[in-house]
Amino acid sequence: xxxxxxxxxxxxxxxxxxxxxxxxxxTLVKNASPLATIIVPQNATTxxxxxxxxxxxxxxxxxxxxxxxxxxSPSVSRYPIxxxxxxxxxxxxxxxxxxxxxxxxxxxxxxxRGLFLAGSNDQCTLFAAYDFLETLGCxxxxxxxxxxxxxxxxxxxxxxxxxxxxxxxxxxxxWLLGYKVRPVYENEKLIGFTAPVVPSIANAQLQSQLVDWxxxxxxxxxxxxxxxxxxxIVLPTKIFFQSHPEYYSLVxxxxxxxxxxxxxxxxxxxxxxxxxxxxxxxxxYLTFSLTPNDGPLTxxxxxxxxLDDPARAGDHGRRLAIFxxxxxxxxxxxxxxxxxxxxxxxxxxxxxxxxxxxxxxNVMPWVVNEPRYVKEWAAKGVPPSFYIWVYDPxxxxxxxxxxxxxxxxxxxxxxxxxxxxxxxxxxxxxxxYPTLYLSMKLGWDGKLDLDSARRAFFSEFFGPAAREMEGFxxxxxxxxxxxxLDRWGQPLAAARKRVGEEQPYAARIExxxxxxxxxxxYFQLANLAQVALESGLQKDREKFRDAYNALxxxxxxxxxxxxxxxxxxxAKLNYTFGVLAGAKPxxxxxxxxxDFLWGDFDYKVDGYMRAMEAVSPKNILVRSxxxxxxxxxxxxxxxxxxxxxxxxxxxxxxxxxxxxPSNDNAEVAFEISTDGGKSWRTAxxxxxxxxxxxxxxxxxxxxxxxxxVSAANKTDTPWYFLEDLRIELSTN
Length: 732
Known about the structure:
This protein is an alpha/beta fold.
């Protein structure tokens, strides 16, 4: 009897242990019927409402059940999903981890009292919602709906959850470049023809998709500013060079207006004032940039040269570090919680940190492309950021990057070395999305298992063709000519054959196939051009022309419109057309700060514009030495056009294709002056000037006119883009 009692007690104890250790589950949806309700705070923010809306939308995509969204109230009839800063979440007293400097973090907690999704700020609450959807199997591999992987099941159960996360990198962003079609000139004469321009609606759609894609993969973080900032925004040559040439670089005995003399006390004073003003007017930013213009530091004055390390010939990192330190010490008095950022490692004369200069604690150096330098800067006791340039397609003309595996590995190495933020400068070709996706994931989780993540990408996104598509991407680095393209395309052809018409895999592979076709035709054109140049035969020129027109058709397709560098492709081919015609084109490709308009006129233009907003005390901060733009609360830019040979203008029109970051937050005005700027007439004023604007009524009898374009920016960003302004002119 005693033995039996003991067995009973043991069995009872075992059953109790089983009850304790069994993980509870909570049912959100059963048989396509909702059993949960999404609850938001009474005064929910835009991001909290968006998080709730996205959660409801994707739960419906998964199960077919639509979860209702309601404001928080005392009574809850269904299992509650609390989104954001609700009173119920406050009662739970759940600690949210916070990253240093950015303060980011979120929690996902599921228990008997409900599911809680909350962040340290409302943006992180949105991250929590997307992260929870990932626990259910959702993936956001490409921009847009076609890039999503959504599981399908009619019942959704979740276990008890206790997820608390903060990002590996305090800032995670990419700058996706996009060059548009432009013609080529010789002595201001248009050569050949005008290529088509990407419709603005395609840009707007793509921009929206890219922002959404980045948000779903938890990009964002602290607001950092580290762009080139010498003589363009601060101390522009238009204002200061003639009156104070000593502010600028001394090169071979003469002052050069491209870089500054960073040892000059007035230059240092101006930058202190500029940084303080920037932080006063933009408190949301963590950094202000002290980065020189793109290129080596060139000042050869005795004071600057005395600051260089004699043991490092040609290395100007020490003088730049001293300049940054000097500004940082003064700015810290007024803004002790802010940082002075600069690209400290990016040119041949800026590499390792100076051995004998201790950096101020409010300095944030940025290391470009080389993870090994991150460790050296981290050893100096300052928080280095990592900036990776991966825009080889822009310089090569190829519509893809040639290294799927290398870039994420470089990002991971930078994080391991101590980098605290990530900025990736790339292009948005669909052939580069795997690289960008993995980089985004590493920005949040620096310890991500890259091999597993890469395998999951291809397996989940391309299904039965995963092996072939991964082989296709691995082959990008081997492509040098058409025969290489044929070998590269073999796994792509095999992938298409394997999936047949099975969706969504067939549509995803077709998108890649379209980019491949454009790439192949581009290579063929390059070969045809070479043949035509060598033979000089009209028939070979005609073959090149016919193939070029075929490429125009592909670039005008839905997929082609989204290529970032189609203008680069065509500009190179335009150059070839000019050579075939016997001309010597003046410009063969686009530059970041140059854009060339078409028409028979002299032009002066800076077409890829950045303008600081509302940060200009006494014209210290202005935009563009070439154009004479005085930055103010509106921002603006000005061109002067003169008719050749004294002719008068017969027709002129303009269209502003896109305004970033938001069309809805900028009002653009086009003004005309025919008397040298003494008086102005408004030709057009609109929030979205997407259609051509006719300036003809304002130009009767004029031999020259000024066109002024200004944008009243209503956002809190300190700079904005006026992208793709194009002017068409013709004369009598």
